[in-house]
Fold each of these.
Amino acid sequence: MTFIPLFVVLPLLGAFIISFVGKYKKCFSDIFTNIITLTLAFLSFYSIFLLNTKSSLYIYKVGGWAPPFGISLVLDGLSVFMLVTVNILAFLITLFCINYMEKFTSKFRFYTLFLLMLAGMNGIIITADIFNLFVFLEIASVASYALVAYGIESEELEASFKYMMMGSLASLFILLSIAFLYSYASTLNMADLAQVLKEKGVNKVVTFAFVLFLVGFGLKAAIVPFHAWLPDAHPSAPAPISAALSGVLIKVLGIYSLIRISTIIGINKLFSNTLMFLGGLSIIVGVLLAIGQMDLKRLLAYHSISQVGYIILGLGIGTPLGVSGGLFHLFNHSIFKSLLFLNSGAIEYTIGTRNLDQMGGLREKMPITSATCLIASMSISGIPPFNGFFSKLLIVLACIKSGYIGYGIVAVIGSILTLSSFMKVQRYAFFGSLSKKSQEAKEVPSFMKLAMLILAIICSVGGLLIFKDIGNYFIKPAQEIIVK
Amino acid sequence: MTPYFLCLLLFLIGVYAVVRKRNIIKIIIGLIIAEYAVNLFFILFGYKLEGRSPIYSPDQEIFNMVDPLPQALVLTSIVIGLATTALAVAIAIRIYEKYGTFDITKINKLKG
């Protein structure tokens, strides 16, 4: 298929053009970025359509070189699933940025970095070459380090430095394990690698490489023993970037890459037990750390750790039900967590603080922000009609069906604690009497409202994906790649 | 086997510097050392004793060639390392402007 490389080429080209032209024309970078992200969103929907109507696998050979030697780009069920998640969010986030980023200077540099990060993420998703994955991973990571430091205040620089050191170490571990795999199998193409590993069998070298991968991607995904950088890095970025980092970056760089690698090497019992244990630990530790926070964005960042735990738990169970629950939760979490971060950005935009103590009574002043935040809070804590409920239900059901009742109880407890911490957010920020700062609050500009409303609508109807007629087109092809 | 152990030692020195050192510049240098250890490892397993460069020529028979792919990969990885290092040093300069020190124990405005 000839349009596959566009997922990388378009944002790269956009970043290049904006870095030159954006300086002279002020509104150019706004319009151009939104056109690019909208095109990418349409392309990803088109690829769902293609995948379900014609062939279930599309391969593009870069430069015409045949697969085991050249780099090839692949569209299959899993990559299309991730592409849709990433590109919908990228479009809504750039829509939000049109108004929100006005308070920063040199907006075009922001768009350049954002598009670079998007190119990196799309590249990771569609590539079928293990070293190419590393290159795209570094493009996305370096852009995200710069974006975290975008405000260049002292806290942001500190967070960015911490994040950069952790991220670079993670990349080194990943590179080292690629070296081990290549020295063992003498190939870099993923499909070829899977073939060779099947023939040669898995020995200690492969297991060691896999542990290195787990450490590297675990650091990128902020699974619990490796989570220390996330609560600093994600709140320090501007709100739309926090949404992009928590919503998609940790999932693409961490979880998706880990899953891709594990489909190559093959999932064994020990590995799935490790994943489930780390997932359960993340759920509890993340949510317990989140409850006490008074900084809204920091609270949301801790919840990201906890919700990633659900995804890892679901994928670790390894049954078709668990894996589809995990993937479904991945999609849902990227929607409602971005919405929550955008809400926090909207509050910060009008009253200039993200401390819950200084908010209060915002429900009357900002009706749309308040309503969308309520929907997102109910989704993340698993209240029935919204999407978060269905994915958590699938994960808990999968736990019980496979006999891991303990993990099922952990997931339910995590959900209840999440509910309590979001009741606190609603109580402090939106209900109660007006605080001094919220007196002069007013509703945010129209593009910000539009982005939040669309995300809230996806939250409300996203639960429909649980029905077989709709989910078969979106989640099932992805799940079939992981569990054959 | 000795070169591999030395390579591992270099990697551990780098990781030690990242984890234990207090000066930001030393942490960045540690990162570079660890990165070069990984690059060296990549080159090492592609190398053959008394191997020759992988260039085909029509008039002679070629044997005992060095694996060229790791060298190409390392070239890419060095360029990526350059980008990361440049960004890290730029942020270190900004941190020095804001805090007036390179000591990470004194750079602690964040809670986590």
Amino acid sequence: MEQLIEQLKSQIIEALNFEDLTPADIETDAPLFGEGLGLDSIDALELIMLMDREYGIKLADPKAGKAIFQSVRTMAEYINANRTK
Amino acid sequence: MKTIHEIEITTTEVILDRKPITVQESGDKMLVELYRRYVGDYPKFFKMDTLSRLGFIAAELLLKQSAISGEQSVDAIILANRSASIKNDTDYLATISNGNYYPSPALFVYTLPNIVAGEIAIRHHIQGETAFYILDTPEQLEQIIQSTLQAQGTTQRTALAGWCECSEANKFYAKIQLLRTI
């Protein structure tokens, strides 16, 4: 799981063009939206694309996104349980 | 109409109120250099396309000058260019050109030139009018700015207005002013 978390942090930085951040700057349990990284709705779409592209996960239920995208850890847990690649 | 401050940005030069700002880089890298030196606290900058980065940096430097000299807030943003968002449109098209693609929402959102005006408005909490015109020449913009600001009668208004053009990678030009009706 720790390896997936670190990999996910790198992928988030690349997908969202956070040129000034390193994986160490992202707290595993910090909120992704609002506080923490301060992501917005466009970023949420990018994260959905990232999960599809890298892990073969298609989010069918938009309501589920709130819980999945709470933090890097919740994303990693969801990916671990649902990945197809 | 009175020009309070003015900035001109080419791919190799930055002139603020007729004084050059020293830069080491050129093109897109120069905009990043200016961001790191004068802003630094707005990571959303890195998600912007070049047109938005150009307008954003121009507005940052202009409004810093304005704050130093204690001027009032901005009421409106009026920008224009000739090439709309063609550079980002082309970049986006390249990402969806083969059959097995993942369209990027972050790229798609900048396939409209008026986004740069929105980015400036969000950053500086400007709640008045924003407009972005597609014109052949900067001279046509002058008439639009005058008629827009003077339509408000005798109320004194301040606008961030000017030309903000990016036609391809590392090819851009901005001349933006902070204007006040007399």
